[in-house]
Automatic annotation (TrEMBL):
Gene3D superfamilies: AhpD-like (1.20.1290.10). This is AhpD family alkylhydroperoxidase. Pfam families: CMD (PF02627). It comes from Amycolatopsis thermophila. Residues 17-96 form the Carboxymuconolactone decarboxylase-like domain. It comes from the Bacteria.
Length: 161
């Protein structure tokens, strides 16, 4: 597969990529566990069919110690026994926040109550920002048909240096 357009091959696109990487780094250094962040980003990317983001977040999660079993079960997290209640709340938020057009109410009150139960205000801020950020990145990659497979763990962090 060949990309139809390299969004980052121009000055504005490069600046945009660095800003996205900077936000990613900011969120990554929050109190929300990195594993939860990677699971959320992976699930939204799966839903949106974003190969480069699935590639990136699978590899980043594995590099951070996430198990293959858990990574393989993210797509069916409701039926899996390997996720904590907090992770389930975050994954539900990721799904409902990603599928806004599919549900008249967006994020349900039940999901929001579970998020409030398991996360503090800072962590919720990170979750909400992460869902928005990953959905934006997914859409840009899908629009430009960016291919997947070449990502190496740590690449996103190197963009902010």
């Amino acid at each position: 597969m060949e990309a139809r357009f390299n969004l980052m091959a121009n000055e504005i696109g490069g600046k945009l990529a660095r800003r996205f990487a900077g936000i990613h780094t900011l969120l990554h250094h929050s109190s929300l566990p990195a594993s939860t962040q990677e699971l959320v980003a992976l699930r939204a990317s799966q839903i949106n069919g974003c190969g480069p983001c699935v590639d990136m977040h699978t590899k980043e999660a594995a590099a951070a110690g996430e198990t293959a079993v858990r990574l393989n079960l993210v797509a069916v997290w409701r039926e899996a026994t390997v996720f904590t209640e907090a992770e389930r709340a975050a994954l539900a938020l990721a799904e409902e926040g990603t599928r806004l057009a599919d549900a008249h109410e967006g994020v349900s009150d039940e999901t929001w109550a579970q998020v409030r139960k398991h996360f503090d205000d800072e962590q919720i801020s990170v979750l909400v920002a992460l869902v928005g950020l990953i959905n934006a990145a997914n859409r840009m990659n899908v629009i430009t048909k960016t291919p997947a497979g070449d990502y190496q763990a740590g690449m996103i962090a190197s963009m902010t240096n």
